[in-house]
Structures are given as C-alpha cells and as structure tokens.
Sequence to fold (532 residues):
Amino acid sequence: MAESKENVLMEKIVSLCKRRGFIYQSSEIYGGINGFWDYGPLGAELKRNVKELWWNTMTRQRDDVVGLEATIIMSPQIWKASGHVDTFSDPMIDCKTCKGRFRADQTHEIPCPQKPSKMVSECHGEKTPPRAFNLMFQTYVGPVQDDSAIAYLRPETAQAIFAQFKNVLETSRQKVPFGIAQVGKAFRNEVTPRNFTFRSREFEQMELEFFIKPDEVVEAIAGRVASTAEIGNRKSEIGNPDWGWEAWHKYWVEQRIAFYEGIGLPRTTLVEYWQKPEELAHYARACVDILFTFPFGTQELEGIAARSDFDLSQHERFSGKPMGVFEEELRTAWNQLPKEKQDALWRRYYENRKKYLVKMGVAEETAARDATEDANGLAKGQYIPHVIEPSAGVDRLILALIANAYSEDQMPDEKGKPETRVVLKFHPRVAPIKVAVLPLLKNKPELVKKAQAVRDQLRPWMNVFYDDAGAIGRRYRRQDEAGTPFCITIDFDTLGEKPELQDTVTMRHRDDGKQERLAIGELLNWLLPKIR
Ligand code: GAP
Fold:
C-alpha cells in the first residue's frame, strides 16, 4: 500500500535530521532506546537558539519576570502536594500474547522498529483490564534503596517554581503580578513514545508561572475587574490594576502566539484550542492549547492554563509554610470599601477557598473554618496568588520549526540545469548557522586569508561556518539543507580584480538564491538586525 504523503514527509524529515546532524536516536550503536533522542551539532545550536529566544523574551525583555534554575530531583513531598504521585498516570493494558504494554486510551499502535517515525498495528491478542501506570521515573537518593529513599525525576519544571515562590518573591523584590520562568529537563515514562521527538521520555520544557491577584483582590483595589473584551495587547496597558485572571490569560495567549510568529511559525500554522469544561484539569479555570499542524496531525505545542491558586495552596498545606503574600495596598483599599462590598468580596473568596479545600478531601467543617481564616486575611492585606501558566515543550517546538522549514524546490545547478534542492527555511533568528563564509577556491592563499578575516570579524557576534571544500554550488546546497540563511563568497573581485569591487563580497540568500554585493565593512550591520 502506498504510504501517505504525511508519512513520506515525516520520513524525509527524520532522515534529514540524522543525515545533517540535527537529531539522532539516543544510544544508537546499541540499538537505540525508545523515547530518547540526542541533538547533534546543528540540532544543539537550533535548540540553544530557541531556548535563548524564549528566555530573552520572557525574562530579560520584561521587568515583571525573573528566572529560576532548580534541581531535577526534589523532595518527593513536592510530587505528593502537586498530585503527581497519586494521579499522574495513564490507563494501561497488557497484551497477553505479544507481552506489549499499551495506553488503553490510544489506538494500539507502536513505533515501527525499522522506521520509528511510522506507527504499526499491534497484535490482536487478549488484553488485560486497564490499570493506572504512574508516569514518573523513580529513583533512590542515597545508598539505601528502601521506600524512605524514593525520589522522582521531575515530570515538569513548574513545581520547583511554586516551591521556591516565597524565596524568589523575597529576594527579587518583585510584587504580584509577576512571573518566574524556568527552562529545563523533564522526564515522563510515556507508555507509548511516538512521532519522533513529539512524545519523548526525556524532554525539555520552557515554563512560566505568572502570579496574579485573585479577582476579589483586584476588585477591592481597582473597584472593578476588566472584561476580556476591553483588554488590548498594547504594552502601555499591561498589568492595568483592573486586570483579573481572564485578562491575564488572554494576554499570555497573545504573547505566546506573537513569540511563535517572531521565530518563523506564522499564525496560520497555529490553532488556538480552548479546552472544553469537561477537558479541563480539576484545578484549571481555563486552558488554551496552542496546536501546530505536524505532518502526523495537528497537535499540542504549548498549553496556557489558568491554574487558580491551586499550586501554592497545595504547597502551603503540605509544607505547613505560608505561601500567601501581604500587600499594604490591599489592606488600605479594603478598609475604605463599603461594608456590603467587603461582605460580597469576602463571601466570594470564602466560597472559592472552601470549594478547593473540600475538593482536596478536607472535611466540610475544617474547610469552612480554614476558608473563613483565609477570607479574613483580605482585611489584613493577605491573599494567595493565582497563576497563569504558559508551558511549552522545547523538543516539540524544534520539531515544529523543522517541519515548517522543510521544503523542496527547483533551483538551477552550476550549469544552469534545474535540480531539486532540499532547503530548511528557518527564520534567521533560530537558524543554527547564521552565515557561511566561503572562499571561492581553497588553493588561493589570498582568497583563504580574506575569507578567514571575514569569518573572524563576524564570529564574536554569531555562529559562522567556514567551508572551503568543493564546488561553490555544492557548498550552497549543503548550507541550504542546514538552513543557513546567508552565504558570503569571497572571490577575485573581493581581492580587487575589478577595482571598484575591492573588499566587497557576494551575499547569497538561501530562500531564493538571489545574490547581492556588499562591502565587508558593512556586513555586521547588515546581518545583526536580521538574526536578532
Ligand atoms: N506544567 C504543565 C505541564 O507540564 P503539559 O501539557 O503536561 O503541562 C507542557 O506539558 C508541554 O510540555 C506540552 O505542551 C509539550 O510541549 C511538552 N511535553 C509534555 N510531554 C511531553 C513529552 N512526552 N515529550 C515532549 N514534550 C512534551
């Protein structure tokens, strides 16, 4: 049977990734290990660029977000509090015939052992009833391997942010609303890793936890909560005091889509999927998935969840340490509110706190007592912040960028005969190599010397690749496949064969093959705005 166009494309991508050093199977010389992938020289650069762009956009370019780099192994109590120990599981079934293990909620397909990008049907043997299978990787800390030493590799980077919330708040001098960002490894023992790196067992996340005031606090201070229809996305409006959780949620969805556009994934390639109430995690008030159309289907790239005060509340209860904040502004505003307004806001805050506590299994009476105490805190300027969480996967984004950039077109070869070329049309910001410097001939010392001088001039500013091997057309094609947006050729005119062209170079554009002549002295200023 003929393979579908999508599968063929996926196979071409997987093969290009290996051939050009973007992504290899982990432990390949030992037959590989399912769900683990290594990034080769070009992949490592691409990944680094993506993470740096995210970090810059989310932290350095803003006054209201700071960074964190926490450990991968943390106290197992964190995963108790977050709910991962008890509920982070997939329903699984075993096949009694082939001994395979599969997710009960997915079609029974497994990656083909010969072509991991392709899914093949599993046998039709008798299956066991579904059982919960926890997705966290477990290990032991210290020399004794008993239950008291169990720890987990983090399944998300988010929880460390919640656990360190108070430390960051106190040391960074931030005030709510503000965010904490983290990039790092996460591990999930996925039952069926699939679709190349899309669902891996070891992957990286880029997560922001953006802490905001609960709506009752916004209303007490600003007198109202802005409707989402009123929310623009202009810089001057960011963080108006009347922004409640819906405004902040909408704002972050827009910000994240703008980020993807800025690195070469047009809005038309993305789908904004608003989860239906029945799809939401129990603590979430809303969640928008940003989906990308991969060759194997339209699937999640990032989730942007409004997580209420669930996480900080859980850590407060499990650690016994207060996670709330104090704001003089709230205390003052509260004391100036009319009694009926105070009562209405108190009641709403109380109801939300009580609902959460009861949901978490706290007895009705205790929940009512604790919720009363929490709501009484408002008058003293105290509350537990809510959170908006844009959570993106680095590896999925890399795959999306490669899939989006992959194209085949016709371009004349050196003799003018059209040939098919494979080109990765990366946005220059993410491209692993920004510019290739190519002396026309490698056996002409003057050309080589000049080319090396150009390389050395640009190198402190960007990733430059120097290549003097083979015909110039072949060298261009190699850079096209690597996704290098610009190639600089040093030829005899550069050396002054035509005096008016001395110290100029040919700048060749990857996407259309067009060439222009630029002075060496202006190269840096020409390149920098394009790659940043
Ligand atoms: N803290 C929230 C959280 O972890 P998630 O939807 O489970 O939410 C967030 O994960 C993002 O992490 C996903 O949108 C995806 O990009 C990435 N991700 C999750 N599981 C993954 C896996 N097995 N392989 C690759 N990326 C994954």
